Amino acid sequence: MDGTVLVADDDRTIRTVLTQALTRAGCKVHATSSLTTLMRWVAEGKGDVVISDVMMPDGNGLEMLPKIAEDRPGLPVIVISAQNTIMTAIKAAEADAYDYLPKPFDLPELMKRTAKALSEKRTTATAARSEEEGDRPEELPLVGRTEVMQGLYRLIARVMNTDMPLLVTGESGTGKSLIARAIHDFSDRRTLPYVTATAAELIELEGPARLLSQVKGGTLLIDELLDLPDEAQARLVRMMDATSDHSPRFMATSQKDLAPAMEAGELRADLYYRLCGTELHVPALRERVEDIALLAEHFLIRAENEGAPHRTLSEEGRELLRHFAWPGNVRQLENVVRRLALTARSEEIGKSDVAAALGPQTGAEPMVSGAVNEKLSESVARHLQRYFDLHGDMLPPPGLYGRLLREVETPLIEIALAATGGNQAKCAELLGINRNTLRKKITDLDIEVTRRRKLM
Asked: I need a labelling partner for 50 at 20 to 30 A (CA). Which of 44, 138, 214, 320 fits?
């Protein structure tokens, strides 16, 4: 590498590491713990690339980016930050940062991006977007330090203000609808309506026109695209083709991969090709295990802000959370943590509290090949014994019978609903219970019916 790099970070260790690495790579380095000093260097014409932290003793690094762009058009600024939420990525993109990396960052990756910035030697400025705060929330509940989540944040920041249709995919409970709403709330359309379209509205004769009148150029979300019958899909295609000055931005969510669904005839090809251009895939929680403890702490703080007692997680409790399968993803984790915030027996949430909240599945491991022919009763007994073993010399908390029934009942109903395509009459018949009983259990157990019956 050839050039001068300005480094601003209040952590002496980080300044030392970056100075040594960049010097060895052939760069000249000026390092400081002060934004004031950094801005003086920029104004004096020093530096070909800036690497800056966000939270500094004398200010916010992101707030300096417009001034840097004004003083030195085209000077690349790489933002590094320990604030690993989507807010930081979005604000960095809005302020026209050259790149953004979360802390703790990977040094070789930062060196690679610095080399790219130096080689490009940008000489033309890009106008900094004005940031209208409006009614934006201070923080969005999209939290993660893992590379897969940071990559998602960067992609969101790039597509946020485009007009192209957007598809958000991922398993149930990963936060697809939350991300769609966040993109709208932080985009240039944030002052316009955000409307979720239903199959019934798309099928009605006047439905599409009414939807377009409601959305008024804002964002129109189609939640679970594959729930739409063919007639609704055809009307949606016509809506997307009827462009005007007040056309909305179309977004859709789906739990399934749409390409196989199109090949199977569940999705119209013309609708698929209109939506598949930009896809945001939200990873399952098992793909971002290192974020579990971070998310748990985030939900504990939120619960406390809403009136729950102050709680902290013990290291043993974190380990149990990290080793759980989380079939319900982030939504399930949030529900468990909120319950722990209210029911834990002390300020520190211990291993036994977490084990009780997770139930008999805690610590469950994939079935080994020798257990393929194991009877259901034997499998249940094995998991129950592991649950008791987790408590060591102590007994599990009282109320085990009721907790166990709920832990079995919830996945049973969820799987039966999925198998019957969300048809509650068929599901009740399959389970051998009254339909009203099934409805009550769905409500009491807070089960999400992810596949609605298609309108004929």
From this structure: 138
Question: What is the percent of the chain with per-residue pLDDT over 90, rounded to a whole number?
Answer: 22
Residue 210 has pLDDT above 80, yes or no: yes
Q: Are 206 and 243 in contact (CB under 8 A)?
A: no
| Helix (H) or strand (E) segment spanning residue 303 | helix 292-305
Contact 420, 451 (CB under 8 A): no
Say if residues 218 and 188 touch (Cβ distance below 8 Å).
no
What type of residue sits at position 388?
A: F
Q: How many CA atoms lie within 13 A of 356 on its CB side?
A: 20
* 321/172 Cα distance (integer angstroms): 19
268 neighbors 237 (Cβ within 8 angstroms): yes
What's the pLDDT tens digit per position in 15-63? 989 998 898 888 889 999 999 999 989 888 888 999 999 888 888 888 8
d(CA 19, CA 270): 54
User: Would residue 211 be called left, alpha or beta, if left means φ above 0 and alpha means ψ between -120 and 50 degrees?
Assistant: alpha
- The pLDDT assigned to 367 comes to 33
Give me 147's structure tokens. Answer: 């590379």
The answer to whether 85 touches 59, Cβ cutoff 8 Å, is: no
**What would the pLDDT profile of 386-436 be if each residue is shown by its tens digit?**
666 655 556 766 777 877 777 788 888 888 888 888 888 888 989 999 888
CA distance 7 to 328: 42
Distance between CA atoms of residues 297 and 138, nearest Å: 17
Residue 235 has pLDDT above 70, yes or no: yes
Q: pLDDT digits over 55-73, tens only?
A: 888 888 888 888 888 888 8
Q: Are strands 4-8 and 49-53 parallel, antiparallel or unpaired?
A: parallel
What is the identity of the amino acid at 264?
A: A
Which residues are 52's β-sheet partners?
8, 79
Q: Whole-prediction pTM value?
A: 0.54
Which single residue is written with the structure tokens 């395509």?
Answer: 421
Residue 126 contacts residue 93 (beta carbons within 8 Å)? no
Of residues 346, 436, 47, 97, the one with CA closest to residue 427: 436
207 near 432, Cβ under 8 Å?
Answer: no
- SS3 (DSSP) at 34: coil
Report the alpha-carbon distance of residue 134 to residue 243 in Å, rounded.
Answer: 28
- Asked whether 169 and 308 are in contact (CB, 8 A), the reply is no
